[in-house]
Amino acid sequence: MIEIDNTLSLSRAGIDTYRQPVVFMREDCHVCRAEGFAALTRIEVTLGDRSVIATLNVLTEGDWLPEDTAALSEEAWSVLNPEPGDRASFTHPEPPASVSAIRAKVYGDALEQDQFDAIIRDVLDRRLSDLDLAAFITACAGDRLSIPETIALTRSMQAAGTTLDWGSTAIYDKHCVGGLPGNRTTPIVVSIVAAAGLMIPKTSSRAITSPAGTADTMEVMAPVSLDAATLRRVVEAECGCIAWGGNLALSPADDVLIRIERPLDFDSDGQLVASVLSKKAAVGAKRVLIDVPVGPTAKVRSAETARALEQRLCAVGDAIGLTLSIHQSDGTAPVGRGIGPALEAQDVLAVLRRDEGAPADLRDRALDLAGALLDLAPETREAGGRAAAARLLDSGRAEAKFMAICEAQGGFSEPGEARYHAVVTSRAAGRLAAMDNRRIARTAKLAGAPRQKLAGLRLLARVGDRIDIGRPLFEIHAETLGELEYARSYAEAQCGLCTIEEDRE
Fold it and tell me: Per-residue confidence at 156, pLDDT binned at 50, 70, 90?
């Protein structure tokens, strides 16, 4: 019997493939020829007792990679953690068990609990390619995921990770479904609720399709990459935290799905609900407030859509033991003045510090949400949640609690300012009738947000304002001149970004 040498030396490619394990081989490599590997083939790479399933990229020209060597992306390298001189074996992996379930969903079949369990297991074992994951996400988009399927997916996602146990302590949480630039209420709400003595271990994601997520904004002011032990220490000391969920393995499959959703630039109601509620259950929460902004250019565009989402949220919440309160809010225009991590952090601090020029809309929204959460608690309900929230904010107790949380998470930092600024002015006179949330968000992203923490927009006019020709509408902040010009060109070409109803004689 002839043994085939399917091993290669390993080198570090030094290429970030954003959590996707990738292996690079020459097309004339003996393993490529013997195994019949081609570009985008899924390959199982084994080194001792460690293995990873990676996607193959083939080098057709150039000599940067020796013939007897495979190069690993940063993600694959971190999983295998090879020593100098190590050789790994390369084989075809067993076909993922869940591919048939994904195919069934693509063709419109309803999936059962065991099928979702298999998909989530294969997601975490990296057995599914990005094409498989994109097919699954697309097949579940729109109304293609029923409420029973959403419940099953939520349970699968929670069961695949860690669930925090706080004993008999009542745990509170809140979440916004998103789609409204600048709506950074979470740090304010957590500070108020924690100042009231309620436990609120808030974990948040980074931005998926927006210019900033709560974790992006909070990271400007304090560390957010907490492990479970640090999170517990912070919460037990201060009653609350504002942490990034990616280090905690609370619903780890969701982080993989988010990686695929980001370039696709869409969410589905079923996956949104499964993502949100699996993480709420995993953090140990029992009483949860969900903010649903509704507006023509928000993520949720109509009252009818909001009602359908509320029905799905409540059905899943009941099934997994959560008490939900759904709060519909105005999603017709951006909130506050800043859009982008540092600019939103400045707004948060202005509200907490009770600055005279703090954005009133952000303050009011935060008080509404904090009050609704306090109304869920027997010990604060009778006093009137919103009034209690206002007292905690106006007295400075919320600010003090926020600073204590920051210090417990690793220390507070003041938000900085971007290097380059450019003002976009009005070409018409009249009343500012509307601002397009999606185009405003797009402009901030083109300026570099959230990747560049100091980038984004500062709004200089509000819906309802009287506008003269040449009046500044917003200011673009960027860290490079190229991004500044890119964002400004886009904004100036978008006639619907700010709608001005011109004066009529």
Answer: very high
Given 267, 269, 291, 347, the catalytic residue:
267
Burial of 401 (0-12, 13-18, 19+ CB in 10 A): buried
Q: Is 265 exposed, middle or buried (0-12, 13-18, 19+ CB in 10 A)?
A: exposed
| HEC sequence for 339-352 | ECHHHHHHHHHHHH
In Å, how far are 423, 467, 500 from 470, measured between CA atoms?
Answer: 10, 8, 13
User: Nearest CA to 331 among 430, 423, 440?
Assistant: 440
30 to 33, 35, 45, 389: CA distances (angstroms): 5, 8, 15, 68
Question: pLDDT tens, 214-266?
Answer: 999 999 999 999 999 999 999 999 999 999 988 888 888 888 888 888 777 76
For the chain, the residue count is 505
CA atoms lying within 13 Å on the CB side of residue 278: 29
Residue with tokens 């957590």: 190
From the list 128, 169, 123, 204, the residue with the least C-alpha distance to 287 is 169
State the pLDDT confidence band at 503, using cuts at 50, 70 and 90: low
Could you tell me the two tokens for 287? 């009483």
Distance, in Å, from the CA atom of 366 to the CA atom of 349, rounded to the nearest integer, reads: 13
Asked if 254 is an active-site residue, the reply is no
DSSP 251-308: SHHHHHHHHHHHHHT---HHHHHHHHHHHHHHTT-SEEEEEEEE-TTSSB-SHHHHHH
Percent of the chain with pLDDT over 70: 98
Q: What is the dihedral of CA 351, 354, 357, 359, to 10 degrees?
A: 20
Closest among 21, 20, 24 to 11, alpha carbons compared: 24
Domains of the chain, with CATH numbers? 7-91 (2.40.40.20), 99-159 (1.20.970.10), 172-247+283-409 (3.40.1030.10), 420-502 (3.90.1170.30)
What the block records as the tokens of 115 is 């099928």
Average pLDDT over residues 495-499: 86
* C-alpha to C-alpha distance for 206 and 221, rounded to whole angstroms: 15
Residue the block writes with tokens 């990676």: 54
Nearest to 315 by CA among 157, 109, 154: 154
pLDDT score, position 504:
60
Share of the chain above pLDDT 90, in %: 82
